Amino acid sequence: MSAEENPAAEPAPVIDVQGDGRWMSQHNRFVQECKDAEPDVLFVGDSMVQLMQQHEVWRELFSPLHALNFGVSGDTTCNVLWRLQNGELDNIRPKVVVLWVGTNNHEHTADQVAGGILAIAQLLLSRLPKAKIIVLGLLPRGEFPNPLREKNAAVNNLLRASLPRLGPVQFIDVGGNFVHSDGTISSRDMFDFLHLSAGAYRTMSTTLHELLLQLLEETPQERRASLV
Amino acid sequence: MSEDSNPAATPTPCEDIQGDGRWMSLHNRFVSDSKGKEPDVLFVGDSLVQLLHEFEVWRKLFSPLHALNFGVGGDATHHVLWRLMNGELDYISPKVVVLWVGTNNHGHTPEQICGGIMAIINVIHQKLPHAHTLVLGLLPRGKSPNPLRARNASVNDLVQAEVASLSHASFLDMDPGFIQSDGSIAHQDMYDYLHLTPRAYQRVCQPLHERIRSLLDKHAP
Questions:
Q1: pTM value?
Q2: Where is the SGNH hydrolase-type esterase domain (chain A) (predicted)?
Q3: Is B41 a domain residue?
Q4: Which of A120, A220, B112, B212 is buried most deeply by CB count within 10 Å?
């Protein structure tokens, strides 16, 4: 599905409707961080990524890996695509990129959302040919079974099948344990039935952290070579 | 300003546009949570209230005060009004209600937002005649000076003036000085120039905690 056919793969900034320009401020800050920092790991996506940085687990597990967090609450695949094409990949050479986006694509079908995520993965691979990509699956949401759970699961199934064909891209589903046998999600795991509590972040971060350590170990030390 | 002419003071539930019914789930959970609990303090408002519950500062400063948290991200005054009129105050008798809402009232004037906040104070007073409502001032927002900062400051001025004549309500300015000398707000305080980092919450919650403690002490027989 090309960008012309798939609206979820069309880069688009967020228009400042509220009046305080916060989205662009955050984007500009990330572009500046690219000039100052040399991250080994880049996290990019929506509020699921952004909020992670506000919890202890970020400082404990991911800061030591020299990770940058380019999450923006509310972002769709279109917004992330735009940000990455407009400066947020300039001057950095992360070894691993963690991508977590798609749950806010309310106007798009599961096919379109998966296509949007694929487009982002393709962009990352073309801009960072030596990087490995981890795509996190969309989590279930809502207290009870609802259409968005089905949609997110459908996106995950499409990604599971198509992502590995792109190259060094892995799909990780961290949502396995959130839906209980009665079909409900607990507010202890998702305080608003969408966003993760500190405890839930800690649980999923352990898996992700182990995978990152593996991938970082496998990647040769490029930086030494480039300084010569 | 009558309720009919002020959208910010017209109780309105949030429409489930996204399709997972989360707003109503949260409201229902707050109503059922309140049955069988006896909080001394109730926090109600938007995401600034809701996210407070997710950080260590809640456990350290507010759990010991027997506090409940009825914050919902995105809520404006008319949403909070609806929630409080539809069950969230029916089963509890807190001594202090902490109200923090207004920054999401997009499209409303400061006068309308103030009217919304006063309507909420009224409802709380009707349902809980012995409770004291502590209204928290709206924080500045945005990285650089912008119209919403002016709007929020106007709301604070209006609310502070109206509340001055009430014995069952008072106002607390929550801004410890987030706006730096160059007019900017640091992302170390507001990671998205709206929501508070854990360290900023620590800063604003100290005075809030002290104020609540003194209100509780006054309330004691």
A1: 0.95
A2: 43-202
A3: yes
A4: A120
